[in-house]
Amino acid sequence: MAVENTGPEQVSTTAVLLALATVFTVLRFWARYQVVAKYGLDDSLLVAGLIGVFVVGGLNFGMVNYGMGRHADTLSLDQLEEVLKRLLAFECVYVTTVALVKLSILSMYLRIFPSRDFKIGAYTIGSIVIAWCIAIVLVSIFQCDPIEKAWIPWMTTGTCINLRASFIGNGVPNILTDVAILAMPVKQVWHLHATMAQKISLLCTFGLGSFVLVASIYRFSTLMSFNEEDTTFTLATPCTWCVVESACGVICANLPTLRPLAKKFSNKFGSSEKSRSRTNGSLGPTELVTIGRSQQMNSRITRTKSPFERLDDESSEGDAYDVPTRNKRLYREDPLT
């Protein structure tokens, strides 16, 4: 009788997601190079997040190599110990990677939405993400007393926390911060004096991260089948979805920055603006549109000869919004942080 094993599916899924996350990150920097955009904190955090995705993927490969995806009673004690050691590291790196991606997205928001109230909200959510990350890493490391009981659970001495409860404590704040980050731009975009089509287009751009929320919720649901007596089999699918979630977070964080490349290739394939793009050498709108402005910010922005259409905010603060029209572009020379 064949041994039940989900390891091959874990390996193939992980490999595909690592490749996709890498491709989209390369495209991000290519797009920035094409429009001569200045790099910011969001780029650095995203690269750190990509490195984290590779570490998470490598640990997943290592766990599969020692038996993750197979039932625990088919493995030797040495194999179980090696899997559980890597699982502890996996938990710490996974939550750190997810936090880096969230912080990268928040940093990108701060470059686009510089209004004071929005900054306060972004810094608040960022602080919650950092606190959540530190708490989960500490809980993962010190889940057992002594610590080594986490990878040698058959020790006759020592105690461990309720792992199912710790998974809930990890997953719920993760999902809630995802929802908060997705919802943050809605008010800013909705207050634009823009056409409904423009508003919907911008909301769809920022809403691309919703798949990460779906992945996070699904990963959380798979944890409900966790069985401490069969860790290597019942945690195989959740671990793979940790890779999916973190890699998709990197991919979705890159997507809003790829508009220049999308514009360039759409022009090549019959866009009505093809001739204009060739005339002015433009790729179209840069990937970062500034929404909201302050006195300080005006000194940081230069325009091409074709000005932006100024769209006023409907809020009481009277902030204004810069929205690209046709081939008009805005370059941020000194990104807000």
Automatic annotation (TrEMBL):
Family: Belongs to the SAT4 family.
Annotated region (Disordered), positions in chain: 269-337
Record's subcellular location: Membrane
Annotated Acidic residues bias: 311-320
Keywords: Membrane, Transmembrane, Transmembrane helix
Listed Polar residues bias regions: 292-305
Topology term for the membrane: Multi-pass membrane protein
GO cellular component: membrane
UniProt-recorded name of the protein: Rhodopsin domain-containing protein
Domain named Rhodopsin: residues: 27-263
Pfam families: Fung_rhodopsin
Residues spanning the membrane: 12-31, 43-67, 87-110, 122-142, 200-218
